[in-house]
TrEMBL record:
GO terms for cellular component: plasma membrane. Belongs to the G-protein coupled receptor 1 family. It comes from the Eukaryota. GO terms for molecular function: lysophosphatidic acid receptor activity. It comes from Echeneis naucrates (Live sharksucker). This is Lysophosphatidic acid receptor 6a. It is a multi-pass membrane protein. Its main location: membrane. Residues 38-298 form the G-protein coupled receptors family 1 profile domain.
Length: 351
């Protein structure tokens, strides 16, 4: 029945998205190399180099883990898109799909957590002291993982690998074979949920928090307290954060709504379907690239990391300098004691 539905979907309008296979294999290969290197470096900094950690670094560590989980599945996807055949079994196909949605919506939610945390730190620095703790950050991260996995795992495990036999080859398909029946019965509801909880709400929170932070920075007392240089850093941080969020996630999520409308036959017409199917692979590649751009957020957001590294080197220098002073003062003290002792014995002998 699934193959019948898939055949009917294909036969209704001719597809013109064959370019997606070389596009996916090329982009996913680049994302795998760049994403793996940058995120491994980031996890090393967070776990080994960084000594001072706060709630912001807690969110960023979870964001790194989300990226790495997805990056490790990319070689399987590259192999599939090059060979257009999935030999790894149905379970691994479902896990790969689940991790894609886990990464995308987990990234959006963790970036939103960073944005809200920055909003609380700048706009309400005193009232938010009890909220902005590492314990509360860990609770929030746990809630994000539960929410994301509860949506991504059922979606991924609804997908079934399908086989097609013809005169030339026997191919097994993955990642691209949800039927119209599945879209109408389940996936349209899933899209509404993930678009609302995973995209619209985080987008609004990111935009609103950024606007309120910028309004706070424009106040004279904030400028005089924080200084022009600090204001420039925060402004640059907010702009980079918003650009990455909007660039990576808006094209895919907007197109996903139209893609769902096409697949459920709510939007009809071969021209509309052709446009949506052509945009979808490009938007998907942009969304996947978030694994490469997230480390940029770490750099600009984590003033703590940069200050920690500077502070660490300063402390090391101060320790060595103080040790030198201590040894010098100790030797001087010993020398003074010896002189004092000699004088005392000399006086005693003279008496």
């Amino acid at each position: 029945q699934l193959l019948t539905d898939l055949y009917l979907d294909i036969s209704t309008c001719s597809k013109n998205d064959g370019f997606k296979y070389p596009l996916y294999s090329t982009v996913f290969s680049i994302v795998f190399v760049v994403g793996l290197i940058t995120n491994v470096v980031a996890i090393y900094i967070f776990t080994c180099t960084l000594k001072l950690r706060n709630e912001t670094t807690t969110y960023m560590i979870n964001l790194v883990l989300s990226d790495l989980l997805f990056v490790f599945t990319l070689p399987l996807r590259v192999f599939y898109f090059i060979n257009q055949n999935w030999p790894f079994g149905s379970t691994l196909c479902k896990v790969s799909v689940s991790l894609f949605y886990t990464n995308m919506y987990g990234s959006m939610l963790f970036l939103t957590c960073i944005s809200v945390d920055r909003f609380l730190a700048i706009v309400h620095p005193f009232r938010s002291r009890t909220l902005r703790t590492k314990r509360n950050a860990k609770i929030v991260c746990t809630a994000v993982w539960v929410l994301v996995l509860s949506g991504s795992l059922p979606t991924g495990f609804m997908l079934q690998t399908t086989s097609q036999d013809n005169n030339t080859r026997n191919a097994t398909f993955c990642f691209e074979n949800f039927s119209s029946k599945q879209w109408k019965a389940h996936l349209s509801k899933v899209v509404i949920f993930i678009e609302t909880v995973g995209f619209v709400i985080p987008l609004l929170l990111n935009v609103c928090c950024s606007i309120m932070v910028l309004q706070t920075l424009r106040r004279p007392q904030t400028i005089s307290r924080g200084g022009k240089l600090n204001k420039t850093k925060i402004l640059r941080m907010i702009i980079v954060h918003l650009i990455i969020f909007c660039f990576c996630f808006i094209p895919y999520n907007v197109n996903l709504v139209f893609y769902a409308l096409v697949r459920t036959k709510t939007l009809k017409g071969c021209y509309v379907e052709s446009v949506v199917r052509s945009i979808y692979p490009v938007a998907l590649c942009i969304a996947v690239s978030n694994c490469c751009f997230d480390p940029i957020v770490y750099y600009f957001t984590s003033e703590t990391i940069q200050n920690s590294i500077k502070r660490k080197s300063t402390v090391t220098y101060d320790v060595k300098f103080s040790e030198a002073l201590q040894s010098e003062s100790s030797s001087n003290l010993q020398c003074s004691l010896r002189n004092l002792k000699a004088k005392v014995f000399h006086n005693e002998s003279s008496v």
